[in-house]
Specification:
It is a single chain. This protein is α/β, with parallel strands linked by helices. The strands form four sheets. The chain has a seven-stranded mixed beta sheet with strand order 13-12-14-15-11-16-19, with helices on both faces. Strand 9 (264-275) and strand 10 (278-287) form a beta hairpin. Helix 8 crosses helix 10 (231-241).
Length: 570
């Protein structure tokens, strides 16, 4: 190659001869080049006097080099570049410093190809020749191509560095998670949750610390502030216990495991999501030794219980339990199944997860990752000649369709829906694509429920707000209920209840007897007879009224009813 002065002169002359630059423009370029200390090419480009394609055509003519974008040779791949880097034993930093890209085509392994951003600078070629004794072939390329190739190299180096850093980081976290202080912290956290009868533990990071909170009786309380230094290792310990990927902190994860806390087996369900200051983690605790309350213990009154038992003992149809997450739907269904588990019925369930193991009942765990969904499991169950089927939740139109078909073909199907009221289940099924006439033909009943906190028996006092008591009695009269007692009370708080005023929970219920409604109004759609007046005339009592009636017996407070249902009086 000619020397840089000769090439520069030749290039300048060609630019002027080709009419691409005037003499004055050339003088401006040379002055600018002298001030910035760069190449003639970069000076021309920065001044914006020429298109890069036109400039490269001059380079091709003067230097007799091919431009990679217009030649028969393809733009080098990252693998081709890495092959050359391995052959020369050089790094991406070395190439970046020289502003050179090298590659070896697998079809011509004896030739090293290279692109130098400034062809006039011989340092790149001379440096390459120190490592490569074979043939060299130089190409030209646009700045965009060069920048793209350097970006690929940088990204690959960053990914390799990240993998190395991540691997080291994961190993460090695993070591920290096995240290005694971390193990003690997590064990103590779980032990406290069991002692407090907490259903969930929330771990929430902030910039300077992290907070742990326990959900007790449906309310988040017992907040504790912990040092930030423990956070990463505590989360890692929990993820290890739950068979989760400790190296993945950017995506939501779910895990589960059975652990032993203070001599008691506990099913642990863990969910993590990325947040601003780290992963936010929620643990749900399902205590295996805790006995399920019976239907009366759940808070179902004698009259409602008689209606419920008559509906669930029907030979076919669908019976639904509705309510938000954590309202006790699964517990109610388990007790209903126990009621029917008399040795004469073949009962199969599909759940996510199986929360309580029951004797003489086939229980299937959903595994969506391998295709075992509610709908798929339900179809398979129908081939096992069941009398009674329980589907953990109707989440989609496919599950709703199969459940309805199962009910219409002689099976009794139990399931849950997330709706605010019992009557809302009908609208929800329609939203899922179930035809109204199919709902009317298959639906037998809907039980809506919530859980209210029970007043602490040690510290509650008579209700002071008599105006509120009067409104409560008026509401009961509207539903045709005459309270047996007027023992309305309110919460205070003491050491027995952790100063919350409440201890334990009681259920409130409303039962929509679709079976009776269809028999009474055979020519009308269910959705047309769901207004309050029609329901009340058929013995329907709302959850709010059920709660007020329980409040009149001192079981819960009117304030608690308002917390759960909102303002229930006008």
């Amino acid at each position: 190659m000619q020397n840089d002065i000769g090439f520069s002169t030749s290039l300048s002359g060609t630019l002027v001869e080709a009419g691409l630059l005037s003499e004055s423009q050339l003088a401006e370029v040379q002055k600018f080049q002298s001030s910035i200390g760069g190449s003639l090419r970069q000076a021309v480009m920065k001044l914006g006097l020429l298109r890069e394609q036109d400039l490269l055509k001059v380079y091709e003519k003067v230097l007799s080099l091919e431009c990679i974008e217009t030649s028969a040779s393809p733009v080098p791949s990252l693998d081709d570049i890495k092959r050359a880097m391995t052959a020369l034993d050089v790094t991406d930093g070395w190439l970046s410093a020289l502003d050179v890209v090298i590659w070896v085509d697998s079809k011509e392994p004896e030739t090293l190809n290279f692109i130098q951003r400034d062809p006039l600078d011989t340092n790149g070629e001379e440096s390459i020749q120190k490592f490569w004794t074979g043939q060299l072939r130089q190409f030209l390329a646009t700045n965009r191509t060069l920048d793209s190739l350097f970006a690929q190299l940088s990204a690959d180096a960053g990914a390799r560095s990240l993998r190395q850093d991540t691997s080291a980081d994961v190993a460090r976290l695993r070591e920290l998670a096995e240290e005694a202080p971390v193990i003690d912290f997590v064990n103590g956290l779980l032990s406290d949750a069991v002692d407090l009868r907490a259903s969930d533990v929330h771990i929430e990071p902030s910039e300077i610390d992290f907070i742990t909170r326990f959900r007790v009786d449906g309310v988040l309380a017992h907040q504790r502030i912990n040092p930030r230094a423990l956070f990463d290792s505590v989360v890692t310990r929990i993820k290890i216990l739950s068979n989760m990927d400790i190296s993945e902190r950017r995506l939501p994860q779910d895990g589960r495991q059975t652990i032993r806390v203070a001599g008691e087996e506990v099913d642990l369900r863990v969910s993590s999501i990325p947040s601003t200051y780290g992963e936010s983690v929620v643990l749900r605790l399902l205590r295996k030794q805790s006995s399920l309350p019976d239907l009366e213990g759940l808070g179902i009154g004698a009259k409602l219980l008689r209606q419920l038992e008559s509906l669930v003992r029907l030979p076919n149809g669908i019976f639904l339990v509705t309510g938000p997450t954590g309202s006790g739907k699964s517990t109610t269904l388990y007790r209903v199944l126990e009621l029917l588990n008399n040795g004469e019925n073949k009962i199969i369930t599909i759940e996510d997860p199986v929360e309580y193991e029951m004797e003489n009942i086939g229980q299937i765990q959903v595994h969506s990752e391998i295709g075992l969904t509610f709908a798929g499991g339900l179809r398979a169950m129908l081939r096992h000649d069941p009398d009674v089927i329980m589907v953990g939740e109707i989440r989609d139109s496919e599950t709703a369709e199969v459940a309805v078909q199962a009910a219409l073909t002689g099976h009794m199907v139990f399931s849950t829906l997330h709706t605010n009221t019992a009557a809302g289940a009908i609208e929800r099924l329609q939203d899922l694509g179930t035809e109204p006439f199919l709902i009317k033909a298959s639906l037998r009943g809907v039980l809506g429920q919530r859980l209210l906190r029970r007043l602490c028996p040690h510290c509650s006092v008579p209700q002071e707000n008599q105006a509120l008591v009067a409104r409560a009695n008026s509401r009961l009269q509207l539903d045709g209920i005459i309270p047996e007692s007027q023992d309305y009370r309110q919460a205070v708080g003491c050491e027995h209840c952790g100063h919350s005023g409440y201890s334990g929970r009681v259920g409130v219920f409303e039962l929509l007897n679709a079976h009776n409604m269809v028999n009474k109004y055979p020519d009308r759609l269910l959705s047309d007879i769901m207004d309050e007046n029609t329901l009340r005339s058929n013995g329907y009592v709302s959850m709010v009224s059920d709660g007020i009636e329980k409040s009149s017996r001192g079981q819960t407070s009117l304030e608690e009813i308002e917390r759960v249902f909102g303002r229930w009086y006008s």
